[in-house]
Amino acid sequence: MNTKALVVISFGSTFDETRKLDIGGIESALATAFPDHDQYRAFTSSIIRKRLAARGILVDDPEAILHKLSAAGYEEILLQPTHLLHGEEFEQKILALKEHFLPLFKSIIISRPLIVNDEDYQLAVTALLAQLPPLDENEGVIFMGHGTPRANNAAHGYTYLKLQELFSARQAPVLVGTVEDEDVPNFATVLTKLQERGYKHVHLYPLMVVAGDHANNDMYGEEPDSWKSQIQALGITTTGHLNGIGRYPSIQKLYIQHALQALQASQKA
Q1: Domain count for the chain
Q2: Catalytic status, residue 156
Q3: Cis ω on the peptide bond leading into residue 185 (within 30° of 0)?
Q4: Same domain, yes or no, for 168 and 82?
Q5: Could you list the residue range(s) of the whole structural domain that residue 207 is in?
Q6: Using H for helix, E for strand and C for coil, what is the string for 43-85?
Q7: What is the model's pTM?
Q8: What is residue 193's predicted lDDT score, i.e. its pLDDT?
Q9: Which secondary structure element, helix H or strand E, spans residue 42, and what is its range?
Q10: Which of 37, 83, 86, 146 does the annotation list as catalytic?
Q11: 206 shares its domain with 257
Q12: Same domain, residue pair 22 and 97
């Protein structure tokens, strides 16, 4: 029996396509990169798990899958979060697992989310820019991030603001905004910058691993308060790209790199 297991832990999504292509894309890439590990899935969002269960789709939470792996005789566990940032979900629902569950296994190795340190920022920006279509001089790109009202963002370098600074440093026609008004830069800031830059057309992308409710409704819905509607009200045309960044091979490679680094660090310890 194989005693090594890789658990891919995601926030989750009720959208079938994004579970298959965004979350599933990362899972498939990791399965190919770590053939010596049996792979399992867990979602941290209880709301999403309940909604999926009502449709007959059962996904374990991280605690449940670890109990199952212990009962099945696995000894070495690698946890790879697909979360974008070192935020509340990662801290409270993934990092906290090790202390509680370590006695059940020989080892538990927790890898990191997509963007945590300076190298991650640069690699993520490069990976995102590689996915953009050719742009005319009067075209721009807006990435919609979720944002967080917590002080965590400040503790980790004002994540979205730092990403904006890196895009600007590369002279990329990119604006970064957050759904959460309390975070920076929020959508009001994006609208101001958009008018300053004078773009005639913008491409809207989710800066999220999955293209779920925020992407389909807040970003590109038909309601008058969606980002698309408010931008078009300014006379600027839009193109919506309703795909999470989890389906980009360039992003998937970064998760693989993080998992490899976590394993290597554990071997040196």
Answers
A1: 2
A2: no
A3: yes
A4: no
A5: 132-245
A6: ECCHHHHHHHHHCCCCCCCHHHHHHHHHHHCCCEEEEEECCCE
A7: 0.91
A8: 95
A9: strand 38-43
A10: 146
A11: no
A12: yes
